[in-house]
Amino acid sequence: MSKSFTDSAGKKRLLLGNGFSMACFGGFGYTALYERVKNLGIPEKVQKIFEKYGETNFEAILKLLDDSSWVAETYGLCSDGSQSEIKKDYEALKLALTNAITEVHPEHRGLITDEKYNACYAFISNFDDIYTVNYDLLLYWTSLHREPFAFTDSFSKDKRS
């Protein structure tokens, strides 16, 4: 998913989702990540939640588990005050997802071809501001691939336009 818009000042802005990374490196696809997560051993109840909702949207399932844990605590369903099973499953899924992403992420930026970097750069260079919700380093590596650097983050003092 990627979403772009032009603001009232005419600046073109882009929000990058997982589709940007998947186009460059297929291992970041939600289905591929879910298969890795399952192989890493997520709790059976978490797998049932994924099956019920028929999706591999990790953020949605993590939010569902987090909200469910809060509801269980609010209603006193965790009577002994210990960490609920839901919280443990939430942490297990979060850890498995982190490990799966680590496994599929290219070890270093040299493993991505110049052709792919150039295609990524050609796409993002159409925008004034870029935001990402991705787990990977592809956008950052793409920005490093050109010298001088064509992009800066919002944290530096150098505000290139």
UniProtKB/TrEMBL annotation:
Question: Cross-referenced InterPro entries, in alphabetical order?
Answer: DUF4917
Would you tell me the protein name for this molecule?
DUF4917 domain-containing protein
Q: What is the lineage of its organism?
A: Bacteria, Candidatus Uhriibacteriota
